[in-house]
Specification:
It contains eight helices and ten strands. Helix content is 31%, strand content 19%.
């Protein structure tokens, strides 16, 4: 794992976008196309802003896949991750080759999991832009997370701390409004990506950053599996890195 600590969220986002853009350019040069995974949430604001402005990317040769979505949320709901990515990414790169979204409000959730899994299961992912939750989750794989599933996507239960984080970030006004389930990319499939670019700002994520670096990689500490990836960048601002900095 390669670790980067930055003085501001802006610097963090700029560096994460630059790393990802280089992975995309290399893939297009080598094989004529690139496939990426995009996360959402407050941790990705600056990164996505810079990624859409990176030069030298033929976006028509890029496929983007959606990391996770709430079950039962429409694409126009203020907290919808489809809406988030439309406003912050796909509308800003109109030449994008394809964007494969998770339809969280599909009438048959199991069928939707099968559909989106079939679209991605044979893809070689060049760059996965991800974050870490306050509880250490990757995507919406809250502890105890399934680290052995063979499915690219699965339905997961959201724990209280995860749901409270969504309230704290302002996506919902109270915890009762936060859905209890989501469709999430699985951790084993995330780990198949050629490069992981994990962007983690804010002091509320300091315990999760320490978990990623120091805890045992097991279902109770999902983000710790990042240490097992051969090409993972864990990028944090100083508040998020507070606990590891204090340990010297």
């Amino acid at each position: 794992m390669k670790i980067g600590i930055f003085d501001s969220k802006d610097d963090l986002g700029l560096h994460a976008a630059a790393l990802g853009a280089e992975q995309i350019r290399r893939a297009i040069a080598a094989k004529g196309s690139s496939s990426i995974i995009l996360a959402t949430g407050a941790s990705q604001f600056e990164m996505l802003n810079y990624l859409t402005k990176c030069s030298g990317i033929d976006w028509s040769r890029v496929k983007a896949f959606h990391l996770d979505e709430y079950v039962g949320i429409s694409r126009e709901h203020p907290a919808s991750f489809r809406k988030y990515l439309r406003e912050r990414f796909t509308d800003k790169v109109p030449s994008l080759g394809a964007f494969y979204s998770i339809e969280g409000d599909a009438p048959d959730t199991a069928a939707e999991v099968r559909r989106i899994s079939a679209l991605i299961e044979t893809e070689s992912i060049d760059a996965a832009f991800i974050g870490i939750g306050e509880n250490g989750h990757l995507a919406f794989n809250d502890p105890p997370a399934d680290l052995k599933t063979t499915s690219p996507y699965l339905v997961v239960e959201l724990d209280e701390r995860c749901r409270q984080q969504q309230v704290g970030e302002g996506w919902f006004s109270k915890i009762d409004e936060v859905p209890q389930k989501a469709i999430s990319m699985s951790i084993p499939f995330i780990m198949k990506s050629q490069c992981l670019i994990c962007t983690v700002p804010d002091s509320r994520k300091a315990s999760a950053v320490a978990m990623a670096l120091y805890e045992q990689a097991d279902p109770l500490h999902p983000c710790a599996v990042l240490r097992n990836h051969a090409n993972c960048y864990l990028l944090a601002d100083r508040p998020a890195a507070g606990k590891i900095l204090s340990q010297g």
